[in-house]
Amino acid sequence: MAIVQMKRFELFSFSQSAPRLHRALQLFRDVHFYDLRLEEQLEDVPLHEAVDQEALEEKETLLSQLRWMLKILSPYDQRPKGLKAMKDGLDVLTLQELEQKARSIDYRADFERLSGLHRQKEDLEVRIHSLEEKIRDRAEWETLTIPLETLTSGDSVDMFLGTIPKKLTDALDEALEGFELSYRELISDRGPTYHYLFVSHKSERDAFRDTLRRYGFSEVSFPKGKTIASLQEESREEIQRLKAEAEKIENQIAPMVENLPQYEAAYDYESNVHLKIETAKKFLRTEKIEWIRGYVPAEKEAELRKTLDETLPEGYHLEIEDAVAEDPQVPIALKNNRFVDSFSSITTMYTLPTYDEIDPTPFFAPFYWVFFGMMAADIAYGAIVFVATQLVLRLFNLKPSMKKFVRFFSYLSISMIIWGFVYGSFFGDLIPLPSLFDTQQDFIPMLIMSIAFGAVHLFFGLGLSAYLSLKHGDWQGAVFDVLFWYMALIGAVLFGLGALLALSPTLVSIAKWVMIAGMVGIVLTGGREAKSVGGKLAMGIYSLYNITGYIGDFVSYSRLMALGLAGGFIGLAVNLIVGMLSGLGIPGILAGAVVFVIFHLFNIFLSMLSAYVHTSRLTYVEFFGKFYEGGGVPFRPFVKEPKYSQFPENH
């Protein structure tokens, strides 16, 4: 139960069977393809393009159109949202069922209809917006009641409208003092510009206008023959008419939302068709033969052969063998029991193992579970999280990935409860409980316990390193890089604690010589890869210097105690504040209840976030650093997970 055993295969089939074969392989799903273009060079063999580029571009266009349709229709969607939607969950459909649902409607024709209606609606909205802008612009002139046809330049008088920046009006007043036959009337003084009616005699017209321009004058003109009020009213009436037209179009668009589930199914289905076409880039094809290389889980080999027999009755050639451990291209899939699988996201977030490594998930999961509980220890907090996660798992139809994430915290909540009993913590100190540790006094015992857990964690990681070395036939690595370090570290710990723990002098003496032997071994073998004797010795001494890194590693585990105490002390402080408020009568009790709920919920979140981050850090740095390299290629099934539905879990 760890890394899934893989088979490597080479498949040769007739090129004319390619569409049928690709469809069958996608329905089969559990196959990972290797890109033959990366290394295979066929000399004197004319290759044909394995990808229908025109079909690929057509699918990309279609997916873009479907995305647009879903975006446009989503505001009309009346299906349940929020918690109700989570409870109902997504439809569970196979790829064949997705195809049937998608083909039950002509979504290409619907796109043309919807895009035409939407363009009409947009045109109307642009016109409405333009009219609304005009109404806003004319609002400052509404006090002007004279007909606009009177604002003309005649033989003797020049009448016009315009604006002047507010900050320049005082200076303009002075500049216009010399004009005896020109006049301006303020229409509106709201905003950053003043609106004026200007009247000027023809003898001063040009000079008057030149002066105005020097002070930021901007002329405004309106259609002749009407008043501002009548123009505003006409625009408002036109807006109402355009909105009525837009509403009619809305009424034609809205019913299309009934087909939204089919459009979503079409998007999920066409995404897989696009993947199928694009994946063909990884294959090589001649005029007659198509060559495919890939990997399949060993447990699926018989099913793959059956699929090929049913799909290619005209014949094919299949070569299949166990994947080579040293092959870096072997894709990695992990398979564990439900508890361990809940922790697999921690592994994948770091990196997957290579095929010749081990899956670290079963080994770190118990430690992670324990350490998380130590850092977020509280009976009430754990119970709240456990009940909440169980309700979510039972009441809501979640996607498998989300279900695994919720289950992960459900398991961790049990550890929180157990360690809550160890520390006697229930909402901090709300209810006095018997405990193994007094968190107010037993700092040293808790610190020793944390470092002891850390020592087990580190030594277990070293043990896995020895196992991997022996697995690869490297006994020297197991002895020189692990056993000698065991001797040096364990001997040093027992020798250093001999007097403190009143250990037997004989045991202390044995520990001393074991420590010395381990250190000498590290110095003599730590630089074994160097060529010269001096280089070997220098590298060996440097390797022994890494013992300071182990000291830092041990100290890192003090956070197990520190974070556990921090969460408890925050809870204690909240309870203290609530106690003070409750002495202020009914208002204080109500305020205290609010403080209690809000701040304890915040403390739950903060404690779990800190525990998640720091437990992951201990896993990645202290534990993985001792044996794990990773860098594996994830196994990618020949299918794209749907966005608007989900495949059956056991498919």
Radius of gyration (Å): 39 Å
- Determine and state the CATH class of the domain at 1-50 and 293-333: Alpha Beta
Amino- and carboxy-terminal Cα gap? 19 Å
Shape: extended
- State the secondary-structure class: alpha+beta
| Major sheet summary line | 5 strands, antiparallel
The CATH architecture classification of the domain at 1-50 and 293-333 is 2-Layer Sandwich
Q: What is the CATH topology assignment of the domain at 1-50 and 293-333?
A: Alpha-Beta Plaits
pLDDT < 50 stretches: none
Question: In words, what does this structure look like?
Answer:
This protein has 651 residues and is of the alpha+beta class. Among the domains are: 1-50 and 293-333, Alpha-Beta Plaits (2-Layer Sandwich); 146-226, 2-Layer Sandwich (Alpha-Beta Plaits); 474-557. Helices cover 59% and strands 10% of the residues. The strands form four sheets. Strands 1, 2, 8, 9 and 10 form a five-stranded antiparallel sheet that branches. α16 (443-471) packs across α20 and α17 runs antiparallel to α18. The model has no long low-confidence stretch (mean pLDDT 88).
In short:
This protein has 651 residues and is α+β, with helices and mostly antiparallel strands.
